[in-house]
Design a protein that fits this description.
single chain; 11 helices; 2 strands
């Protein structure tokens, strides 16, 4: 997060809320990028008191922890699958983005609602806490133990979810500074290894259709597979009607 992104996002939201004739109080913490923005018509910024986010910010009431734990679970699941195939898991930047997207979508509405309640955002003190859905996947502890049994050094699961807790998540650098750093890196020839790794893996339409056919065979062996087979047919239609395009490099957007 940067101050530039923060301001542009607020102004975009403010325009949308103005069109909807809504008045919104946006509660923000004291991140250095969360600066005051003048001229907002529909948004009123309300900043939390200093050093109180651990108590008052819903994200700190296990939303972030739940997201991180889910991310780690997905990563460990893929590591175990790769070991089963006698391969070494290679995680590119694109793979990490997929993990992030899937992890956030797996954070349930009930988790978010409960975290808001813990932070004091509820209609009344008597409002009941929502129960969590049962997690059908293996918990992080069991996945970590599986890898330890295979000789991999996996830290304690609690430490594993907090391993990047001290990393900076915001910066006072402007968009221009970030773009300049990227362009300078490219000029020096320091291409990102993850990006090059991702570019090497080119999947043709025929390969994609073969993978879909394998999925179809897989689900055919299960009872009540009609719903899954329908989803596979829909996916097949998308593959057949999608034109393949070359993945753009980030530097192309700043020419």
């Amino acid at each position: 997060m940067t101050a530039d992104i923060w301001e542009k996002t607020l102004r975009r939201w403010d325009l949308n809320f103005s069109k909807q004739k809504r008045k919104v109080a946006l509660i923000a913490d004291n991140c250095t990028a969360h600066c005051t923005v003048d001229g907002l018509k529909s948004i009123e910024l309300v900043f939390l008191p200093p050093n109180s986010t651990c108590v008052l910010q819903p994200l700190d009431q296990c939303i972030i922890q739940n997201f991180k734990a889910t991310y780690r679970k997905l990563l460990l699941q893929d590591m175990i699958s790769a070991i089963g195939r006698k391969e070494q898991l290679q995680v590119s930047v694109l793979n990490a983005i997929f993990y992030i997207d899937q992890s956030w979508n797996l954070v349930s509405q009930k988790t978010i609602a409960n975290c808001f309640r813990h932070a004091g955002f509820h209609s009344s003190p008597e409002s009941e806490e929502l129960l969590e859905d049962d997690d059908e996947d293996l918990p992080l502890t069991e996945l970590a133990e599986k890898l330890r049994n295979r000789g991999y050094a996996i830290p304690d699961e609690n430490l594993y979810t907090k391993i990047d807790e001290d990393l900076a998540t915001n910066s006072e650098a402007s968009i221009q500074d970030i773009v300049s750093n990227v362009l300078n890196s490219n000029a020096e020839g320091s291409d990102d290894e993850d990006d090059s790794e991702c570019e090497k893996k080119s999947v043709s339409t025929s390969d994609a259709l073969k993978a879909i056919d394998d999925l179809r065979c897989f689900f055919t062996n299960f009872e009540a597979a009609d719903e899954h087979l329908k989803a596979i047919r829909d996916l097949e239609k998308v593959v057949l009607t999608t034109k393949k395009s070359r993945q753009s490099c980030i530097s192309e957007y700043f020419k």
